[in-house]
Write a structure and sequence with these properties.
Elements (H helix, E strand, L loop, with lengths): L5 H5 L4 E3 L5 E7 L8 E7 L4 E5 L4 E15 L5 E4 L4 E4 L4 E17 L18 H5 L1
Length: 134
């Protein structure tokens, strides 16, 4: 059994702040925990507006607090996000996330992240060389 708190994880190298300062993520569960997925508590800063495209990962996101919207680029649909909302990127959906009020989100990734990832120019997380060859 593993037990860790959000507070202690946020004080460690498990807390990542995006280079563009749109978000920060405390990664509570990572690939080396050997659960087959990763689990993060992510803060999307107020007025953040950025595009993502997780080509290599599936993601589910549950809103704990705040307010915003997610827009799918394939069809231009906008979905409001408020506490209690989950959105599921089950088709590697290219999307835009907007925070009208700072949002706290619980995020699950499959395959799991290693821990240091930040978005590349396409808004994706890269796979490691071992994940690409698997």
């Amino acid at each position: 059994m593993k037990v860790r708190t959000l507070e202690e994880a946020a004080q460690s190298n498990r807390r990542i702040v995006s280079p563009d300062k749109n978000w920060e993520s405390t990664r509570l569960l990572l690939k080396d925990d050997a659960m087959g997925f990763s689990f993060h508590i992510t803060t999307i800063y107020e007025n953040a507006d950025f595009q993502m495209h997780y080509k290599n990962h599936l993601e589910s996101v549950y809103c704990i607090s705040g307010e915003g919207e997610v827009e799918t680029l394939a069809d231009g649909k906008k979905y409001p996000i408020k506490p209690g909302t989950i959105y599921i990127l089950d088709k590697h959906d290219k999307h835009i996330l907007r925070a009208f009020k700072e949002m706290k989100m619980a995020c699950v990734f499959n395959p799991p992240l290693n821990g240091k990832e930040v978005h590349n120019a396409e808004g994706a997380y890269e796979l490691t060389s071992e994940e690409v060859s698997a």
